[in-house]
């Protein structure tokens, strides 16, 4: 694609297409690419929700196990009828 009349390799058509905001070459919203990191990876909505309660899963399992242990082994063996 080397143009012998243009030794620098500068293409004015490509430059104009990039400068025109309505062209298909441009990104449209200039901040879209810069803001995309906020909603991917560790910053996604699910990841933020999961990290909001970091010990909830372990605490729920431990509490359930304790309640089952208390019901099975620590209940009174005699019945008191008043």
From TrEMBL:
The keyword Lyase does not apply. It is a single-pass membrane protein. It comes from the Eukaryota. Pfam families: NDUF_B12. GO terms for biological process: electron transport chain; mitochondrial respiratory chain complex I assembly. Its main location: mitochondrion. Keywords: Electron transport, Membrane, Mitochondrion, Mitochondrion inner membrane, Respiratory chain, Transmembrane, Transmembrane helix, Transport. InterPro entries: NDUFB3. It is found in: Mitochondrion inner membrane. The chain crosses the membrane at residues 52-74. One of its GO terms (cellular component) is mitochondrial inner membrane. Belongs to the complex I NDUFB3 subunit family. Accessory subunit of the mitochondrial membrane respiratory chain NADH dehydrogenase (Complex I), that is believed not to be involved in catalysis. Complex I functions in the transfer of electrons from NADH to the respiratory chain. The immediate electron acceptor for the enzyme is believed to be ubiquinone. This is NADH-ubiquinone oxidoreductase B12 subunit. It comes from Polytolypa hystricis (strain UAMH7299).
